[in-house]
# Entry
Amino acid sequence: MKLLERRIQAEGRVLPGNIIKVDGFLNHRVDIKLMGQLAEEFARHFDLQGLTAVVTVEASGIALAAICAARYGVPLIFAKKAKSDNIEGGLYRSEIFSYTYRKKVTLIMSRQWLGPGDRVLIVDDFLANGEALRGLTEIVRQSGAELIGIGVAVEKGFQPGGARLREQGIDLYSLAIIDRADQEGFLFRQG
Amino acid sequence: MKLLERRIQAEGRVLPGNIIKVDGFLNHRVDIKLMGQLAEEFARHFDLQGLTAVVTVEASGIALAAICAARYGVPLIFAKKAKSDNIEGGLYRSEIFSYTYRKKVTLIMSRQWLGPGDRVLIVDDFLANGEALRGLTEIVRQSGAELIGIGVAVEKGFQPGGARLREQGIDLYSLAIIDRADQEGFLFRQG
# Structure
C-alpha cells in the first residue's frame, strides 16, 4: 500500500538491532485517520461477508483493530497476556516467546467470546518474528472459529514470521513489507 | 449514562475481592458500537474545541480511546508501561502502583508527541484506585499540555481513585459509577 510505504519512508526510523520505529503514526501516537484507510484496504482484500469479530492481542494492535471493527460493524476481541487475576477459568491458551519481554508469555482468551459459529479476521500493527500472530491463530483454531485471514500494517520481511504463517496456507495480507532497513532508508517488497 | 448502567446490570458480574467483570463488552470482547455511544456522550459533556489528541494508557483503554479519537478527528497517544527496548530517551515518566501486577510500574510517553501547544482529553475504560489515571495526568502536566478532563466508562465509586482526581479540580466524567456491587447486583450513583 503506497500510502503506508510513503509514510514509513518519511517518518520511520531504524535503530541499532534492526528495530524499526513507526511510533509517530502506528504504535505510540496513532494516526487514527490512517488507521481508517488501512481498515478500508483490508476490506478490499478480504471477503468479510459473515464476519463476526476482529481479533487481536494487547497492546499496540488494539487501536488499528478497534478501527477495523468499527468499520466492519463487528465486536473486537483482544487476547491478553496472562498476568492478571481478573481472568478466571474457561480459557483458550497459547504459549509464545515474546522478544519484547525476552521470555515466554501465555496468550489467553475467554472461551465465552469465540466459538465454532464465528468467522474472524485477525489484525495486528506489526509482524516480525510472528510469535503473537502464531499464538492468535492457535487460539482461533482451538475455538473452532473460521479464520478468514490476517491483516497486518507493517511486516519486517527479513524476519521469519510472515513466511511461517504463509507456509500454513493462511491468507496473510501485510500492507507494507520492509525487506531492508538501514540508515539509507527502507526497501519495500513489491506486490 | 443509563445505557451503560443497564448493560452492566445485565451482563456484569462480581467476583470475590470486589472484582467487577465487564469483559463481554468493555475490556476483553469490546462492543465497538457501544464505544461509539460512549464517545458521543463524552463529546456532549466536554468542550472539545481545539482538541489535539486523546490520551490513554495501554492496554484495555486503547479500544475506547481509539473510537473517541476517530469520533473527534484527532490522533490517539497511549502511554506505555516501561519494559520494551523499543523506546529510547526523551520520555515523560510517571511511577504508579499497579494493582493488577502488584508492583510499581513506570508509565512512559515520548516527549515528541505531546507538548505545551496540545489540548488533550484523557480516556480510560475503568477507574478503581486511579493509579493509571494519576500517572497519565502527571505526564500531561510534565508536557505542558492543557488537560480538558478525563472521560471514564466505568468507575468503582467505592474505591478512592475518583475522589482523589476530583479533589485536584480535574473534570472527571465517569459514565457509570458503581457504588456497591455484590451478588444481588449493582448500585449506581445517581448524577
User: Anything to note?
Assistant: DSSP finds five helices and eleven strands in chain B. Residues 2-188 of chain B form a domain with the Rossmann fold fold (CATH 3.40.50.2020). Residues 32-45 of chain B form the longest helix (14 residues).
